[in-house]
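P.,

For your records, the input lines for the assembly:
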Amino acid sequence: DAKTTQPNSMESNEEEPVHLPCNHSTISGTDYIHWYRQLPSQGPEYVIHGLTSNVNNRMASLAIAEDRKSSTLILHRATLRDAAVYYCILRDGLGSGNTPLVFGKGTRLSVIA
Amino acid sequence: DSGVTQTPKHLITATGQRVTLRCSPRSGDLSVYWYQQSLDQGLQFLIQYYNGEERAKGNILERFSAQQFPDLHSELNLSSLELGDSALYFCASSVELAADTQYFGPGTRLTVL
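Structure tokens returned:
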């Protein structure tokens, strides 16, 4: 699996936008970019995923660089509930889909009231 | 609530013992994944089952085994437990093999004394 690099930690003020970066310079053409987050004392939860185009859903937006070597998860208005570890994961879109999620260390986001 | 249930929530046992962790996937999900989360290793994939058959194996020790039953629930058996097996064990489920999203349960915290 191609590797991702994320900052260890980030801090944001409540109600401000947060941009969480992820570098994946060795991404292959069939790798999807997935984001999961893990709130304290909970299991990971899916946030968003994309291949080439930017994506939006009710939780966040995903901005993907044109060369796909980096991406940014955008939380438009951080709340205290968004404090979590955010994982950027590459997943091969080809084949039978047997590939499990490979978690790195992620970015620990702190939100300040 | 992801719809994935895991029991028990907490488990405390002694070295050398054997325990069984149980997971019930979301209704309709055929694929079950097991992950281990420890402080030093982070979240690691152990094993995946699809409709009763083993489909992928990760860093699962020989002392560990799993199965998925006809009603699609899964059990993870851990034997000859060591102190280092203390961790959070998460189960995740997805609709099918190539599904994009995995839904995680709340986890079982195993403490080996």
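Two observations worth noting. The two ends of chain A are 38 Å apart (CA to CA). Chain A has a mean pLDDT of 92.

Regards
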